[in-house]
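User: Before I run my own analysis I want an independent prediction to cross-check against. Here's the chain; please return only the structure tokens and, at the end, one sentence I can use as a sanity check.
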Amino acid sequence: MNAVEKRENRIRDLVNHPWKLQALLEDKAKWNKLCASMDVIGDTQLAINDFFSLPSFSSNNGGYLYLYGLLQALFLQQDAINHLSEALFGKEINWKKDYPDIYHVRELRNDSIGHPTKRGKDKSFHFIARYSISNGHFRLMSHYSDLNKHLFRDVKIQELKDKQENSVVGILDNVIELMEKEYEAHKKQFTDNKISELTNGISYSISKVYEGIYNSYPLAEMNFSIIKSTIESVKEQIIKRYGKISALQGVEDVIRRIDYILERMNVWISEDNLLNNYDAEVFMDSFSDRVVELETMLKEIDEEFK
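Assistant: Structure tokens:
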């Protein structure tokens, strides 16, 4: 795994964090652009790597295909990185101003295989010298109409790769840094706000609901209201941290069960049908177990945001 591939994998890790993932999924076009861009960055790097592991070749045994493929892979990788920037930050990359080395590679691709038969409005025309094609080198002849002259360029392929890779690594490092800073800033909002503390005291309220089942405890309904309020507060705090409860599948499953139990218990309590209700007892048993699961998950969330 080379430097570009390592950074692509790190960006995937950051993108797939539940908090970031939920925000990105809100815009399907942006999400699909991001996914395509990450894939193409990796795919083109595989193509670039493969080129440099080829045996010796010339124009007569695959040289044009290999050269066209390499230059197109470099160009596609640049486009993918630009679209990655658009998807994550809403910002296009100015190659000419900010990354002149990549701009040079980009323009060379356009001259040699992108639009060689007509650049601009008949401004220039370009020819790859067939005899010059090899693994490490090719010669490009260019005719410029306004100057009425020819220009010869001897292109060292390794230099193109180095220029592209150095710039790409720099860009991806910057993407990673910005995403990590964004995540740290998000976490910092909750450092002193422990979500697990919201359930402190819920065991007491659960015990009082049980008393309503066994002894017609008069404050069972009030304590049930406290339980419902506590669960709602937990859900609100999860949403603040992750965008949606569904961002955490395990939490979502537990909350779904808790919500169903509370819905059923609410009917029995509102109908004054709690005393000696053994169905309610079984439901509260399940509720107590789900709360224990939830509290473990909330502590894990606190640990992540610490």
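Sanity check: The chain is about 70% helix and 5% strand.
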